[in-house]
Amino acid sequence: MLATFTTATPALAETPALIDPAWLADRLQHDDIAILDVRSPIDDGDATPFVEGHIPGAVDAGYPRHSWRSEQSGIIGKMPPVDALESLIGDFGVGNDDTVVIVPAGTGPTDFGSAARVYWTFQALGHDQVTILNGGYQAWLEAEFGVAKGSETVVSDDFEADLQTEMITTSADVENAEERGVQLIDARPSEYYEGNEKHPAARVAGTIPGAESVPHQRFFSNAETWRFDSERVDTALEGLSLSDGQRPVSFCNTGHWATTTWFALSEVRGIDNVGLYDGSMVEWTADESRPVAVAKQGLARILDFLGG
After folding, report:
1. How far does the signal peptide extend, from start to end residue (predicted)?
2. Alpha carbon distance 250, 292 (integer Å)
């Protein structure tokens, strides 16, 4: 916990997945609140550097500058080893009894994905007292609450993980998706799903066969500050053919955008056992034997069949 939080308080009630600035402002002096500021260059989220302004008591936990993800066997964006995450989180002053508030910049959907990925990481480590400040630092400024400047004194704590392996989907799970009752959900913008764009680290363009498209950016409203809009979830998920008993698993390029769609399904819609394939298309396409579906190639095959 942070040295600046000294007031003893009872344990917080169950924490909502999304909070507004007023919720946080009411709890700034609680000694079991740990605020992680994950602003980064993503979506220009570092336009105001941490030292020039941040929520009082927050820790500079910038993403991806800190090791919230790692490269493993040449695959970027993977979940780091548990012991590395325990050390990272403990160094931020977070203990197992703390409620973690994740603060993005509030500057775009990809910026929110940073917060969603950190949120998912805590959940995967068995720590469910975690929430995201909706609208991030921009929402805090709009609400005209006070800010601090400079750095914060952090006292490290001990954080012990309880890994929830069911939250982590592997390539083997994806290869056997149909027989395992898995519905794959591609969280990337449609141009990636259709095969018109690809991530630089992916071997080829396209999507995983059988995947349905639910672009991550559908979940947001923007009135100068980008907020996750819970009222848009049902509309964004319209047309998703998820039958009873199927397990949804989201993916993208590197397991970043996909955590937003995971968040919508699991934390907002309340669907049980939603998975995240953190290796996503970069890992999937690294193996040349794995199939890739490309919409425009599929159309070409149909035209060839018809003699077009």
Report:
1. none
2. 16
How far is Cα 273 from Cα 285, in angstroms, rounded to an integer?
25
Tell me the per-residue pLDDT of 8-23, one tens digit each, with 9 for 90 and over: 333 455 899 999 999 9
In whole angstroms, what is the distance from residue 38 CA to residue 58 CA? 10
Query: What is the Cα–Cα distance from 97 to 10, expressed in whole angstroms?
Result: 11
Phi-psi label, residue 106: left if phi above 0, alpha if psi -120 to 50, beta otherwise: left
For residue 183, the cross-strand partners are: 248
299, two tokens: 């159309």
Classified by CATH at the fold level, domain 169-305 comes out as Oxidized Rhodanese; domain 1 (3.40.250)
Query: Which of 291, 293, 206, 211 is CA-nearest to residue 248?
Result: 211
Count CB-CB contacts under 10 A for residue 64.
Answer: 16
pLDDT per position as a tens digit, 31-86: 999 999 999 999 999 988 999 999 999 999 999 899 999 999 999 999 999 999 99
Residues of the chain with CATH 3.40.250.10: 18-142, 169-305
**Bond from prior residue into 64 cis (ω within 30 degrees of 0):** yes
pLDDT at 111: 97
What would the CATH number be for the domain defined by 18-142?
3.40.250.10
Degrees, nearest 5: CA angle 133-137-143: 85
Give the pLDDT confidence of 96-109 residue by residue, as tens digits.
999 999 999 999 99
